[in-house]
Design goal:
About 45% of the residues lie in helices and about 15% in strands. The chain contains 23 helices and 20 strands. The protein starts with a helix and ends with a helix.
Length: about 725
């Protein structure tokens, strides 16, 4: 075998791998029998809680009513008993600080009694509120470091659940995370507030249609999670994968994804076994995972649940990400959630299938089969068009990160220009509104006035157009698919923005219709005038073509659509006056909370690139330079030996290796120089500096290192290659 020892061990581990885990027997333990068994769900509450307490709590969960604090002790006692029956010794308040990760602090149920023993305690106050030490979480200037007090507050709408560990279990309680002054320090609090704003404004519009649902109007999300899965030995042999989550060096293999033979191909046996155990763990937690398949790139996969209320969908996605990581270890695998762990092949996203509605009405983005249903759909669809046009920059900012910047703009990831794909038929209908006319339903050349009150409005099929993989926001039948979110990111920020944008646009629709009706116009005429206005003002956001093309990029400039290519360009959108007005008017976040998020995310961007640059310097000096110089020495020695015996030996390889070593040395020196003093700059200037000055030099260093990989003798190159990592199953 020609590879060196580290690579040999990694390859040998793959070829001799045997699963330690016992086979899962779904015939004896049917998923239908244990689905949700570790969740304190409605069924458990109905069986265990006193009837009056259950009814009170159910009203809070189902109808959004304020919780009666007097029931907290009873709920806590029942929840504690249920958890202890399942082996739990501790409980934790799960929350999502502005790191974007899941956070938890475990506390024991056990407390000393007065006789030298212990008793299990869990009061209503312990359920409703926790107080973790919050001093080390990023706050963006919302509080001083010495002000460590932060509170977790029970999110009653997301059920508590039991997490299993080989040595026991513990109770997890989803919570919000706030400062003692009530400032949101997390991602869940704004999400819940945005849901309330959406409900308020959607019900205003529905009331004008004569619809007054008993249930709240909520947003739904189906979050498709893409990820890479590689043998963990390769991860340990690559410092860049281990520390940065992506390969900072790596030459393209002879074969990548160009044959399209990975997509929906047969899932490798070890990976399929891993997927099955992931699904079993998720079934216990009532995560409705449904789809698994190979993705486009080699060693890339996808797991997708059915849609759920967006708050629960976000919680479940965090559970999915942690379960993917944890279970992978049992199969000798490493799950990579980074958006672009490997250059030259597809990156990973997390598509957000977004809709609004409730159990009574279904999706309000469903075209329906009657003109009246069409009219309601067209109003809500028009509101979405206005929302994306007016707040496209905000939507782009919610997916901004150093890792996602590598992915946006190619390989089925949408461009940074926010646009909406509607499909040809739906676009034609809206264009007809702008013109005030539409072709008749028979498809002839005769024109008729388009009137929402009569049957000349054509029936709209569920799928009024093909999918567009290059569109950031695409209508896909009864929902909009937002494709720009990165695989490692929490969906909370994007869904919060979508809810806020829709609340604003639906409020605008309600204001318009109420004003028209007050002026004496009938309802159909008012609806028609609203849709005509929206399309006239906001149709620039509609684009059904190729989002990757230069033609579209030039056209987007002409239409006035922003092209925020990088994170430093995108994040200032969070503090634009229109965005501040949006969040403050909908009571979601104030100016200080938005500015804090902008600063935190810019700081994270700088820290990510600084870490990668430092790691690149170290790997170049301790791994790549030595390999290249050893090979250069071997080539030079061979040339000297041949010359001594009177034969001419001068190879192109020696010259090329020497040139590439010199180029890498110069690039690494330049990288050290540009890093010096970078962190002394003001934050926004620092982020731009890392983007404009540091990243290009990193790219240049990588170019020389990757060229060396294609030249240096294989037995001298210690880093596992892309070929080994991506195709070693």
């Amino acid at each position: 075998m020609s590879s060196n020892v580290a690579r040999q061990h990694a390859i040998q581990a793959i070829t001799t791998y045997k699963a330690d885990a016992a086979p899962l027997n779904f015939a004896e333990t049917k998923p239908t029998d244990f689905f949700g068994c570790n969740v304190f769900n409605d069924k458990v509450m109905r069986e265990r809680l006193p009837k009056a307490v259950y009814k009170s709590l159910h009203k809070t969960i189902a109808f959004g009513e304020r919780m009666d604090p007097s029931i907290a002790d009873t709920v806590a006692a029942v929840m504690k008993d249920w958890a202890i029956e399942k082996g739990a010794t501790h409980f934790t308040h799960i929350f999502y600080p502005l790191t974007g990760q899941t956070a938890e602090k475990h506390d024991s149920f056990l407390s000393p009694d007065a006789t030298g023993g212990v008793i299990a305690e869990f009061s209503g106050s312990m359920l409703i509120r926790g107080e973790p030490d919050a001093s080390s979480f990023p706050s963006g200037g919302l509080r001083s470091t010495f002000e460590a007090r932060g509170y977790t507050a029970w999110d009653v709408t997301s059920p508590a659940y039991i997490m299993e560990n080989p040595n026991g279990t513990f109770l997890c309680i989803p919570t919000m995370f706030l400062s003692w002054t009530g400032v949101a320090l997390d991602k869940k609090t704004p999400l819940l507030r945005s849901g309330q704003a959406l409900n308020r404004q959607a019900k205003r519009v529905l009331k004008l249609f004569g619809i007054e649902p008993a249930l709240p109007i909520v947003s739904f999300a189906g979050l498709e999670q893409e990820y890479f899965c590689i043998d963990h030995n390769f991860n340990f042999a690559r410092p860049d994968l281990q520390v940065a989550g992506r390969s900072l060096f790596g030459a393209r293999p002879a074969k990548g994804q160009e044959f399209s033979d990975q997509y929906f191909g047969v899932i490798p046996q070890r990976v399929l076994s891993y997927m099955m155990e992931v699904e079993r763990e998720l079934y216990k937690l009532a995560v409705p995972v449904r789809t698994r398949h190979n993705e486009v790139a080699p060693s890339q996969y996808e797991i997708a649940p059915l849609y759920e209320v967006s708050n629960l969908a976000v919680d479940h996605n965090h559970i999915i990400m942690s379960t993917l990581r944890n279970v992978a270890k049992r199969y000798g695998l490493k799950c990579l959630l980074h958006e672009k762990p490997f250059a030259g092949v597809n990156g990973s996203g997390k598509h957000v299938n977004y809709s609004i509605g409730n159990a009574e009405l279904g999706s309000l983005f469903d075209p329906g089969e009657t003109p009246h249903a069409n009219a309601k759909f067209l109003v809500f669809c028009a509101a979405m068009i206005r929302a994306v046009h007016k707040f496209g920059g905000l939507l782009r900012a919610t997916v901004a990160s150093a890792s996602n910047d590598h992915r946006l703009g190619a390989n089925e990831a949408p461009p940074a220009i926010m646009s909406i794909f509607l499909g040809d038929q739906l676009t034609e209908v809206f264009e007809a509104f702008r013109a005030g006319r539409v072709e008749d339903a028979a498809g002839g050349h005769r024109k008729r006035a388009l009137n929402l009150g009569v049957d000349t409005l054509p029936s709209l099929p569920t799928d009024p157009g093909d999918r567009n993989r290059t569109s950031p926001v695409a209508f896909t039948g009864n929902r909009f698919e937002f494709r720009a979110l990165g695989s490692s990111q929490s969906a909370a920020d994007s869904i919060t923005a979508l809810n806020a944008m829709m609340a604003d646009s639906l409020g605008h629709a309600a204001d318009w219709l109420e004003r028209e009706l007050a002026a004496g116009r009938d309802f159909n005429a008012a609806l028609q005038s609203y849709i005509e206005h929206v399309i006239e003002e906001h149709s620039a956001i509609i684009f059904n073509g190729d989002g990757y093309s230069d033609i579209w990029h030039n056209e987007a400039v002409r239409r006035g659509l922003p092209n925020l290519r990088t994170t430093p360009e995108a994040l200032p959108e969070l503090t634009q006056p229109a965005v501040i007005e949006l969040y403050e008017s909908q009571q979601i976040m104030n100016r200080q909370e938005l500015k804090a998020r902008q600063d935190i995310y810019l700081e994270q961007y700088c820290k990510t690139l600084r870490t990668e640059a430092r790691l690149m310097i170290r790997m170049a000096r301790t791994i790549i330079f030595p390999a290249g110089m050893r090979y250069q020495g071997e080539l030079a020695s061979t040339a000297a030996s041949m010359k001594a015996i009177g034969k001419d030996f001068r190879t192109v390889t020696l010259d090329a290796v020497t040139e590439q070593l010199r180029g890498l040395q110069d690039a690494i020196g330049s990288l050290e120089a540009v890093l010096a003093g970078a962190d002394e700059k003001p934050l926004e200037e620092r982020a731009a500096y890392y983007c404009d000055r540091v990243l290009p030099v990193m790219g240049e260093a990588r170019r020389y290192a990757d060229l060396l990989e294609t030249r240096v003798a294989d037995d001298l190159w210690s880093l596992p290659s892309y070929q080994e990592i991506l195709f070693g199953k």
